[in-house]
């Protein structure tokens, strides 16, 4: 059964007040998400004191790079009654797991087609993560301190992830793993995605924003506008860029930019990322469909179909080793709208989408 996606709409532009509002409204879910991550960290051998110290260091980095988002995180913690470092830990969960040298099967497969002839981009991605975090999904509509309206799919307590802004820029999000990951805590990649959504109107602006963050973990932001799409592979070793080929751009969970690929930390023995990327390469016609439901159904491939783009948890495995496609997401950057289906492509239907505009809540 698919987990529901919670929704929170806010017109509050003061970061601390917006965080407190969110924390109060979704306190139980945020506390539950933080507790689940604590269990996940422990299963990977991380002591709570190490998680706390890393989270506090990450909060310091956020405070220097995006002070208003540090204020928002503090507000979320106060609103839901948790220590600030606990909420900091879920925002820095990618960095904490990278510091512990954690690898795994997932996550995520992304496709963007630029049809040309004035037609809008066609985008879709799966969001694969641990099945125990199915209840952590949250869609937020919010207004930045500068007045930018944003719709973002994220997790309870995490400031942002995938989304679209009212300037017509969208961001897809896939984790990567590089040999330069780890060490002293950097700016969390989820915070980078949120700030890109707040400030960027073009792919080049997104790149300039991301380039100012000192990172300690890797990810790829696939940034899309009406006329352009590019994968920005972020890592502590630098940023690689991947452009579409004949209007088609795909990414899974390994580096494609040659200058970073030599530092790849994920292997075919532990991840399906290489299989999924190869499978996507032959699906351009189906992924070009104007209808997001048709695009989502084009991602319906399981292990027996050659690549687990649509992942289902193996309940025989321990919970920290289980992966599932928890959501399928499409962005319409021309309509400034995000479509979210709770679950994998094999369950998507015309009526299963949650459609959320990047607009000021009324």
TrEMBL record:
<keyword id="KW-0012">Acyltransferase</keyword>
<feature type="domain" description="Peptidase C45 hydrolase">
    <location>
        <begin position="151"/>
        <end position="294"/>
    </location>
</feature>
<dbReference type="GO" id="GO:0016746">
    <property type="term" value="F:acyltransferase activity"/>
</dbReference>
<dbReference type="Pfam" id="PF03417">
    <property type="entry name" value="AAT"/>
</dbReference>
<dbReference type="InterPro" id="IPR005079">
    <property type="entry name" value="Peptidase_C45_hydrolase"/>
</dbReference>
<dbReference type="InterPro" id="IPR047794">
    <property type="entry name" value="C45_proenzyme-like"/>
</dbReference>
<protein>
    <submittedName>
        <fullName>Isopenicillin-N N-acyltransferase like protein</fullName>
    </submittedName>
</protein>
<dbReference type="InterPro" id="IPR047801">
    <property type="entry name" value="Peptidase_C45"/>
</dbReference>
<keyword id="KW-0808">Transferase</keyword>
């Amino acid at each position: 059964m698919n987990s529901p996606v919670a929704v929170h709409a806010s017109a509050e532009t003061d970061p601390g007040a917006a965080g407190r509002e969110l924390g109060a409204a979704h306190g139980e879910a945020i506390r539950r998400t933080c507790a689940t991550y604590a269990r996940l960290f422990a299963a990977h051998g991380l002591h709570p004191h190490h998680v706390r110290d890393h989270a506090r260091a990450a909060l310091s980095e956020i405070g220097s790079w995006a002070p208003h988002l540090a204020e928002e995180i503090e507000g979320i913690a106060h609103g839901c009654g948790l220590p600030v470092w606990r909420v900091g830990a879920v925002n820095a969960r990618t960095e904490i797991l990278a510091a512990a040298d954690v690898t795994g099967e997932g996550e995520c497969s992304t496709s963007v087609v630029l049809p040309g002839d004035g037609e809008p981009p066609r985008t879709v991605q799966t969001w694969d993560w641990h099945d125990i975090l199915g209840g952590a999904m949250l869609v937020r509509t919010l207004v930045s301190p500068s007045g930018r309206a944003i719709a973002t799919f994220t997790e309870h307590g995490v400031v942002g992830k995938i989304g679209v802004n009212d300037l017509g820029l969208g961001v897809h999000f896939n984790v990567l793993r590089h040999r330069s990951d780890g060490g002293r805590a950097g700016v969390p990649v989820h915070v980078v995605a949120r700030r890109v959504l707040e400030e960027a109107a073009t792919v080049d602006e997104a790149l300039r924003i991301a380039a100012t963050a000192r990172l300690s973990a890797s990810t790829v932001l696939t940034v899309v506008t009406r006329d352009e799409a590019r994968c920005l592979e972020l890592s502590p070793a630098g940023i690689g860029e991947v452009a579409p080929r004949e209007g088609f751009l795909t990414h899974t969970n390994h580096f494609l930019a040659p200058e970073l690929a030599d530092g790849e930390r994920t292997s075919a023995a532990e991840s399906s990322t290489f299989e999924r990327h190869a499978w996507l390469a032959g699906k351009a016609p189906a992924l070009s469909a104007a209808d997001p439901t048709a695009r989502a159904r084009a991602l319906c491939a399981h292990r027996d179909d050659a690549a687990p783009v649509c992942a289902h948890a193996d309940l025989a495995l321990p919970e920290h080793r289980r992966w599932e496609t928890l959501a399928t997401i499409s962005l319409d950057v021309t309509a400034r709208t995000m479509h979210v289906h709770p679950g994998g492509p094999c369950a998507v239907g015309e009526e299963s989408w949650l459609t959320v505009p990047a607009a000021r809540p009324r």
